[in-house]
Design brief:
With about 190 residues, the chain is of the alpha+beta class. The chain has helices at about 35-40, 70-80, 85-95, 100-105, 110-115, 120-135, 145-155, 160-170, 175-190; strands at about 5-10, 15-20, 25-30, 45-55, 60-65. A hairpin with a 4-residue loop joins strand 4 (about 45-55) and strand 5.
Length: about 190
């Protein structure tokens, strides 16, 4: 099994990248292409290091890449839930920070999870039931509420839920007003 890869990025798309390592190009599925640039990876020399989750099936060998082990571990927890496949787990990871998702699961916030495209009520309940014990110690602080408030504010300004979530995922601010201002700057730059 492939556990990590270090090489040169030769192609970037919205859903995957191709990394060349020792003359072989590996197609690696990713959850958010901009995160590689934002964290400084692949910008100058296009050299990148990824943690890899390998899925071997009868007809395919799929690689899923993550910048840090926390993302990889969360992805592996998500795909352990029956009904959540690797593409669904990538979709979940692409809409919110891991901290926000942990809080939503740990606090049984099914309504937050159902706002993720492709996640219905039954799937959200299944995620919460199967993973909540792992995150029950997550603080029920205001981070999740502030993110929801910021999301609703951006939606009321006319942005789609996906646009608002994408912008909020890139925000570093903590309080609601600062999150909204920073997200509006991101959305205005598009």
């Amino acid at each position: 099994m492939i556990g990590s890869i270090k090489g040169k990025t030769i192609l970037k798309t919205d859903k995957f990248i191709i990394v060349e390592a020792n003359g072989v190009g590996y197609k690696i599925h990713i959850h958010k292409p901009l995160s590689f640039q934002e964290r400084g990876q692949g910008v100058r020399s296009d050299e990148i290091f990824l943690w890899i989750h390998t899925i071997v099936r009868e007809d395919a060998l799929d690689l899923y890449g993550f910048l840090d082990r926390e993302e990889l571990e969360f992805f592996e927890m998500l795909i352990s839930v029956s009904g959540i496949g690797p593409k669904g787990a990538l979709g979940i990871l692409s809409v919110a920070s891991i901290e926000t998702l942990r809080q939503a699961i740990g606090t049984n916030d099914i309504s937050y999870l159902t706002k993720i495209s492709g996640i219905g009520r039954k799937t959200a309940e299944k995620i919460v039931i199967e993973l909540r014990d792992k995150f029950k110690d997550e603080k029920t602080g205001g981070a999740l509420k502030e993110e929801m408030d910021a999301l609703e504010a951006l939606k009321s300004l006319g942005y789609s839920q996906n646009e608002a979530r994408d912008a909020l995922k890139n925000v570093t601010a903590v309080d609601t007003n600062a999150k909204i201002k920073e997200a509006l700057k991101i959305l205005g730059g598009k």
